[in-house]
Specification:
This protein has four helices and five strands. The chain has 110 residues and is of the alpha/beta class. It has a single domain, classed as Protein tyrosine phosphatase superfamily (Protein-Tyrosine Phosphatase, Chain A, Alpha-Beta Complex), CATH 3.90.190. β1 and β2 form a beta hairpin. Pfam families: BLH_phosphatase (PF04273).
């Protein structure tokens, strides 16, 4: 996993593995947000598997999936609700771009 720090509170990466969750837990991540639809790619780890391991590590996991370039206002609203009050957040998708874009959209004044 190549973790890119967007702010002190938020980092992003490509698809994470179960082992990456240990690294994220050690870094103090309290919330993981997945922006990837399940089965987007062959052999992709299912969100349910990530969520189960995250729960074992006391990390909340939220799934807000959307295809690349197809983020909707409802996705941004769901993201804002999910991150409200969270301390350290990590978002992931296939490359990190959607996870970065949704953060930017949620933090842009309209």
């Amino acid at each position: 996993m190549i973790r890119t720090q967007i702010t002190e509170q938020y980092s992003v990466s490509e698809q994470i593995t179960l082992d990456d969750l240990n690294t994220l837990a050690a870094a103090g991540i309290s919330l993981i947000v997945c922006n990837r639809p399940d089965k987007e790619e062959e052999n992709q780890l299912a969100f349910a598997d990530i969520a189960q391991r995250a729960q074992e590590l006391n990390i909340k996991a939220v799934h807000i999936p959307f295809a690349g370039g197809q983020m909707q206002a409802s996705d941004v609203t769901s993201f804002k609700q999910a991150i409200k009050g969270a301390d350290k957040i990590h978002g992931y998708c296939r490359t990190g771009k959607r996870a970065s874009s949704i953060w930017e959209a949620a933090n842009t004044e309209v």
